[in-house]
Amino acid sequence: MADEKDRLGNKIHDAGMGRENQWARQHDEEILERLRHKYAKAIHCPQCGKNLDARVAIGLGGMACPDHHGAWADRQTLDQLTVRLKNAAAIHHESLGEKVFEELATVVEELRHKHPVEIDCPDCGLRLAAKAAMSPGATGLAGMACPNGHGAWIDQEVLASIRKRLDVAAPTGR
After folding, report:
1. What's residue 103's pLDDT?
2. Where are the domains of the chain?
3. CA nearest neighbour of 75 among 152, 162, 158, 154
């Protein structure tokens, strides 16, 4: 009897996981379709010049370099990322006050030198400007942001740091 109960519990668990995976795949495809539609004209990587591909990572969509130099994140993606980083910071009791704001000028200056090629916003065509994040959980992160707020180019180093911060906040446990 106990064996039957265990098998039934496993089947219910597996069915639930299957539904969750199906939902996640469908959600990812919706994100990709939105990005493909929004950016029908090719966006090029500022480092290698290759066309960016629509991709989903950590449940967020962006136009990423196929050679992993970075990604363009639109305003919607940046807003979602900000919320996730704030939640991760709350989990780890980090606060903006733990970092000295004088470091921001250094982060921005380093970013300017890292991207000597001018990068234009794919939405409005204006030149992106180096900008450091100042929200809880995002302190010390930087990207090349559109002055009109359309989005930002985030290089691979910063993407790795974001992933690490989010992974620490929500360990997989598997």
Report:
1. 52
2. 1-38, 42-169
3. 152
Name the token pair of 29. 């495809």
Query: What pLDDT is recorded for position 95?
Result: 45
Greatest CA span in the chain, whole angstroms?
69
Closest CA to 34 of 68, 2, 63: 63
Least trusted range by pLDDT, from 65-74, 121-130, 133-142, 150-159: 133-142
Q: Are 86 and 137 in contact (CB under 8 A)?
A: yes
- The pair of structure tokens assigned to 18 is 């299957």
Give, as one character, the DSSP assignment of residue 51: B
Tokens of 39: 């950016």
What pTM was estimated for this model as a whole? 0.66
Q: For the beta carbon of residue 87, count every other beta carbon within 10 angstroms.
A: 15
Which residue(s) pair with 63 in the sheet? 54, 72
Q: Which whole-number Å values give the CA distances from 55 to 34, 36, 58, 98, 109, in the listed order?
A: 11, 10, 10, 33, 29
Shortest CA distance to 133 belongs to which of 144, 125, 142? 142
The Cα–Cα gap between 146 and 124 comes to 8
Rounded CA-CA distance 158/174 in Å is 25
d(CA 66, CA 46): 12
Two tokens at 162? 């974001």
